[in-house]
Fold:
Amino acid sequence: MNALLAAAGIDPWIAICSLVTVVITVGMGFWTAGKSKSAGDFFVAGRSVSVGWNASAISGEYLSAASFMGVAGMVMLNGYDALWYPVCYACGYLFLLLFIAGPLRRFGAYTIPDFAEGRYDSPVFRKIAVCFVLFIGFFYTMPQMKGAGTTLAYIFPGLHYSVGVIVVGAVITLNVSLGGMKGITLVQAFQYWLKVFAITIPIFVLASVVGHYQQHLEANKTAQETVATAPAGIERKSLPAKAPKDEQWIAPFGSLTTKAVDTAIKAAKTPEEKAALEANKKPYSLLYTYSLIIALVCGTAGLPHILVRFYTNPDGVAAKRTTMWVMILIGVFYVFPPVYGVIGRSLMPELYDAIGSKGTDKVVLELPTLLAGRDYPLLGSVLSGITCAGAFAAFMSTFSGLLVSMSSALAHDIYGRMLKPDSSPEQRLKAFKWAAVIIGVVSVGLGTQVEKLNINYLVGQAFAIAAASYFPLLFMSVWWRGMTMKGAATGMLVGGLMALGAITLTTLSDVYAVQSLADFWVANPLVRILCEQPAIWAVPLSIILMIVVSKATASTVPADVRMKMLVLHAPEALGLKQEYIKEHEGLGGH
Amino acid sequence: MSESPSTPDSIHTDAFLARLMRDQLKLSIACALCFVVALVALPLLNYFQPEFMAQRIYGFTLTWLILGVLFFPFVWIISYIFIKRSIALEDAEAKAAQDGLTK
Structure:
């Protein structure tokens, strides 16, 4: 058996760890499936999850393949600039906490479309809001699928990338359609702890053998230093030509944010053109950085699959406590992935030369095998197996969460409210299962197309769309009494769709290497940056449209807006929610 | 209170809602400002003071140490303060509204 595995290039330890993770995850799904009975259970876990469980579960769902594999890969590839991703992924929760978490929980609704409908008494608006669950969701599932394909291609060296995507997609889809969210809460919480274990233990062991975070960072010389002074005991391998130079890599405004201008400089014909572009390089790079920050910070506050979790808190105070714990749990986690990137740059630079699923995105998986070269072959394999298990936990949990919220949107909103309003709970449950299968298949199809793109980059794009659509909707609806349905819808649609369009354009031109578009980007690097990172114009655009259109249609502000705002903001001790529901029932409302 | 879900009339006024939202928003914006100032300032410092930000501290560059490590506890502190204050604010509001009922 071992000989057979060795012949295929498969390390048995790595394969075993991964298999155990998958079996436990799927097993927990089936085990809890028997416990979730009613439709309410299925959608938001009966709304009775404690703060500790819920915070672990939100963190487990949030730490995706982008966090586990993508951040390390991107730090290795681009250096300092990539650090904005983990920082803003974690700190974006602050905006959620400050402006949205408490009020949203007090209002009480299953999903964001529920909130949109309840706040404006408009079933039409629900239909518009549902679309973005799917838009954001699909952009978010693509990198998860890339993570799956990359990991399976690493474990089974001969395996084609898309086979990995299909296998993992099928397993998770099956799991979700059988377990629902009750199962997922338990599984997600378990997976958070698995992921923290899998990212920390290997790097502590590894760093004690090959040298620490700051030592490897010190080995990279800054622009101010004349020679690289690697600390004693740190041996770097020579970097391939494709890798960014030390002084660009370690400093801000490096290859990630200057790529568009650099490409244009390469294509420039005259020295004057080159000089003009060089002068613009740093300002554009600053613009890119700010746009990225806005996308990630605002986007976190508008992610549909995270927001739905806040309804599983018993009350608004618990919702706030949960958010605090989530920030601590994910903040602790995010310190570690960059360490893999930094050590990977020193000791595994050959990854710079590889493309697609063999590139830097797999540095987390492969880095522990360095121990084999330092006389610990077994330990290296076991630790590499542990990081693979963590990667499985990462893309499985996030994909499950996305699948639940996207399937809920289809089953609960589109089927249950639009197509067949008189459907029975059994019919809706069946619809949920079918929706999960349909979305699973589409996600796998999209996932097979994105091998060339960086995992982390793709997730950032999903955040930008959320930042331009849901964030303005939630923020403005919670804090401004004068919002009208038309204003909210116009802002969300125009901002969100323009961001979606700009991002789709850049993604398509990168995936399919469209020549005419590539020429256009070279001629207009600024446009390329604004399309790649649209948040800096799309978020203000969306908010301004909301204000302008709401002012123009001020007569259509919902009549009971004061009551709605009271429900959103008044302490729950006053029992306004119950009163509000009674009033609505009295009026024969929905 | 629990037998009767009906709430005092004083809370169904625009003045009560306006005060409620203003107090909450003030707290949120104050906390958000600390965070936003840091987010805006760090790229600006990198832009205008690259030498200063590139100095070495325990092997890290200053800017790497801030962004890669110190930013997380900074945000935890803000959120801890916010949660403490916001829960206290809610308690005070609830108490004030209920006192209004008994008077």
